[in-house]
Amino acid sequence: MIRPLGAGRSAAFTAATFLLMGIMGVIGLPLLVSRRATHEWMRLYARSVLILARHMAGIDVALRGPLPSEAVVVAAKHQSLLDVYILFVHLPRARFVMKRELLWMPVFGLYTWRIGTVTVVRGRRGEAGRMLERIDAGDPGGQVVVYPQGTRVSPDAEAPYRRGAALLAARLGRPIVPAATNTGVFWAKGGRLSGPGTAVMSFLAPLPCPTAEDDEITETLNTLETRIEGESGRLVAEARGALGS
Q1: Spatial separation of the C-alpha atoms in residues 134 and 148, rounded to whole Å
Q2: Global confidence as pTM
């Protein structure tokens, strides 16, 4: 049965992840001369956090569907930090779109800047266009990860889907791979862990690259929302039902 961890254990887990980030951040400073080396160091950190989650809360990770290895836009459901770490570990060359204020986080911001993370100012008018310009200004890498809702959304909450993922796919000329998850069941937005159980990241059938026409962007966005929300809902129900939560 999924049970919330006590506040002490959840706090211990959070403290361990930040302590590890600080230690690895200092040790890895010489690697910042290489974008690839920095990316692999960050992947090692993300993998270490998943190991901590398994040992401290009994949270395992499972992938479903074909893991995208080609150049695509991954439109992912974002329920917790856990799904970020899962994507970072398992995608061959992930480049994330994230909110600008995260760049000012100690250690984390420096490393994410170095690997070419694209930042956006959430809610600012015209920001989607500026995001496309920043993507064009650098090598987008293998998989560009976008969170269509723009923020973490708890399993039982709702938030609108934004046009950025579809616009980005149209600009880059790439298909979109929807990704659903149930990670919010195990790692709540406020930091509380629950377990044991299996956090799933499910990669769905890709959508063809849309054109930049408004009607096609809207249709792509609606399809993304239907597929991601439907599969995420099934994964959440599966986790809660199978484990008696």
Answers
A1: 17
A2: 0.89
